[in-house]
């Protein structure tokens, strides 16, 4: 399964990169994340709960951040097991480009799914992944925006300059 996308985040690249490496921020922003612990500056242990169609499972795994040219570019490797539900192994390549005080985050994600989760229709898993990624960027943008840029009840995308994508 492969996914890719680009999101404009209204904050400088260094701030975005730092927030992307902060377990507390990730815990608040990743909808399926139950627990994350930083084991070293580049290694994390995480537990995720996922439900795709009739399958509900918890996956425990490891994440490794490979900051090849941080904060401009990095690779995130993930591997997890959900017992009978199966396994997940993936690689995300993330580019952060600073444009007019904003950060343009582009990603490509390749994931291999095994077991019960791998047998589910790829379109079902991909649709769920798209929703989780969309919710992450919505929460993440709200998390790092200064409070003066968001009014109560306003969707974070509304705080972006005209012509921006979120």
Short description:
The chain has helices spanning 13-20, 23-29, 115-119, 122-144; strands at 2-9, 33-38, 43-52, 55-69, 73-81, 87-99, 102-114.
Give the arrangement of secondary structure elements.
Elements: E1 2-9, H1 13-20, H2 23-29, E2 33-38, E3 43-52, E4 55-69, E5 73-81, E6 87-99, E7 102-114, H3 115-119, H4 122-144
Antiparallel strand pairs: 1-7, 2-3, 3-4, 4-5, 5-6, 6-7
Helix pairs in contact: 2-4
Could you describe the 3D structure shown?
The chain has 166 residues and is of the alpha+beta class. It has one domain (2-152): Alpha-D-Glucose-1,6-Bisphosphate, Chain A, domain 4 (2-Layer Sandwich). Helices cover 26% and strands 45% of the residues. It has four helices and seven strands, in the order βααββββββαα. The protein has helices spanning 13-20, 23-29, 115-119, 122-144; strands at 2-9, 33-38, 43-52, 55-69, 73-81, 87-99, 102-114. A seven-stranded antiparallel β-sheet has the order 1-7-6-5-4-3-2. Helix 2 packs across helix 4 (122-144). The longest helix has 23 residues, at 122-144. The radius of gyration is 16 Å and the shape is globular. The model is unreliable at 150-166 (pLDDT under 50).
């Amino acid at each position: 399964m492969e996914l890719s996308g680009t999101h404009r985040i209204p904050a400088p690249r260094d701030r975005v990169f730092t927030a992307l490496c902060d377990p507390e921020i990730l815990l608040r922003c990743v909808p399926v994340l139950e627990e994350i612990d930083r084991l070293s500056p580049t290694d994390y242990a995480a537990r995720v709960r996922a439900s795709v169609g009739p399958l509900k499972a918890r996956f425990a795994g490891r994440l490794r951040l490979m900051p090849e040219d941080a904060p401009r570019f990095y690779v995130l490797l993930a591997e997890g097991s959900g017992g009978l539900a199966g396994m997940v192994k993936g690689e995300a390549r993330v580019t952060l480009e600073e444009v007019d005080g904003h950060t343009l985050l582009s990603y490509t994600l390749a994931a291999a799914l095994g077991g019960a989760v791998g047998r589910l229709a790829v379109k079902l898993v991909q649709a769920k992944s798209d929703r989780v990624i969309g919710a992450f960027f919505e929460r993440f943008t709200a998390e790092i925006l200064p409070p003066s840029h968001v009014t109560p009840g306003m969707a974070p995308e509304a705080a972006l300059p005209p012509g921006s994508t979120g």
